[in-house]
Write a structure and sequence with these properties.
Blueprint: H1 2-9, H2 14-29, H3 41-49, H4 52-73, H5 77-122, E1 129-130, E2 133-140, E3 151-158, E4 161-169, H6 173-193, H7 197-211, E5 218-227, E6 230-236, E7 242-244, E8 250-252, H8 265-268, E9 274-278, E10 284-288, H9 290-293, H10 305-312, H11 317-332, E11 340-346, E12 353-354, H12 370-373, E13 375-376
Antiparallel strand pairs: 1-2, 2-11, 3-4, 4-5, 5-6, 6-9, 7-8, 7-10, 10-11, 12-13
Helix pairs in contact: 2-3, 2-4, 3-4, 3-5, 4-5, 6-7, 10-11
């Protein structure tokens, strides 16, 4: 990365090097006016790497050197004037192009800033510890300039335990972002209001039925942790989560009764099913979108998420997802062609949880539960 930054820092000097190369060729070749028109390549190239002032400086340097070389070689005045006039015209045009490029870059920077703000409002950062869980998220939008896309996630503590959602909106662009915002807004509200996880899903379904078009839908997995040792999962047409047991076994959580994506229930009449899974100390659950599993390499082979998770799973969710995300980008050659989201939660073991002693008398009775007061200290032990 440092080497790349060093190379980029040398780009503004490239037009000067081009002018110097042309001058050297003219001096060595002694060909009169045959090399002089190539001096225009300097300001033309400067338009892509420098501002208007840099372009004018390169053009002035090329003009002075061109006049000196033409005079030394005895180039007739009209021919030399024509060459220098063409060089001046190229310099002015390149300066204008550089100014327009700078304006577009400033507009793009403003759009990126707005996109980052929208991303933080829509996809709130997930803390390292949520309730009794360690947690981590990695999200990549296919449109890197936009920073946001149609994938969605949320992980929030509620009066009924920690609840989370990972989903994928059909389509791309602003309509997909709007639908994702709608789903997350309803989820965050319903997760606090509804004791039953299926009721949370029903609230999202009813909202989407009122607001989506006939061909629009959202695949999603909604999960909750209502009581110690028990995980509830509702799968609405989404990729099945992966469950990593403390023993190292990796299980695909296939839905017992497949249900349609959110927004399509009225067309099928099928309702989602609530799966209850044991989820004890050391267990991990990975939720993801199809941008991960459908990522292809140059040979059109899909990314093997199951094998990747088995290789990289450890006691630190952030480190696990860092390794998976890096391997995913390597698999596709550096850039994803679809939005991709990964959300991983882990239940720490008893020996990894340290309850700090109260700093002042009575601090232990501040109303925080054991899970809220606990500080997790994960060890870097591979699962």
């Amino acid at each position: 990365m440092r080497a790349l930054r060093n190379r980029l820092s040398l780009l503004p000097t490239l037009p000067v090097l081009v002018v110097a190369a042309v001058v050297l060729c003219d001096l060595v070749g002694g060909a009169g006016t045959s090399w002089l028109p190539l001096l225009a390549a300097g300001p033309a190239l400067a338009a892509t790497t420098n501002g208007p002032r840099g372009v004018l400086c390169v053009g002035l340097l090329a003009g002075v050197l061109g006049a000196a070389l033409g005079d030394q070689a005895g180039v007739p005045g009209p021919e030399l004037a024509a060459v220098l006039s063409a060089l001046a015209a190229v310099t002015l045009a390149s300066g204008l192009a550089s100014a327009l490029r700078g304006r577009r870059e400033r507009v793009l920077d403003a759009v990126r800033s707005v996109a980052e703000t929208a991303q933080h409002a829509l996809l709130s950062p997930v803390p390292a510890t949520v309730g009794p869980f360690q947690a981590a998220v990695r999200y990549s939008a296919a449109a890197a300039e936009a920073r946001i896309g149609g994938d969605l996630y949320a992980l929030i503590p509620t009066p009924y335990g920690v609840r989370l959602i990972v989903g994928d909106v059909r389509g791309k662009g602003l309509p997909a972002v709007g639908t994702a915002a709608l789903v997350l807004g309803v989820f965050r509200e319903a997760a606090y209001d509804e004791p039953d996880l299926l009721a949370v899903v029903d609230r999202i379904e009813r909202s989407l039925a009122r607001n989506l078009g006939a061909d629009d839908f959202v695949t999603a997995v909604v999960a909750g942790y209502p009581r110690p040792g028990q995980l509830e999962v509702v799968n609405c047409g989404h990729a099945p989560p992966l469950l990593v047991r403390a023993s190292g076994d990796l299980v695909t959580v296939e839905p017992t009764h497949p249900a349609p994506p959110l927004g399509l229930r009225a067309l099928t009449g099928h309702t989602p099913d609530l799966q209850v899974l044991p989820f004890t100390d050391g267990d991990q659950l990975l939720l993801y979108t199809d941008g991960v599993t459908e990522a292809r390499d140059r040979g059109r082979a899909f990314y093997p998420l199951h094998e990747g998770l088995a290789r990289h799973a450890c006691d630190e969710p952030a480190r696990t997802l860092d390794a998976l995300h890096e391997e995913l980008l390597t698999h596709v050659g550096g850039r994803l062609h679809d939005d991709a989201a990964l959300l991983l939660i882990r239940k720490p073991t008893v020996r990894e949880v340290v309850v700090p002693e109260p700093s002042v008398p009575g601090a232990a009775s501040s109303g925080a539960t054991g899970y809220e007061a606990a500080v997790t200290r994960p060890k870097a032990r591979s699962v």
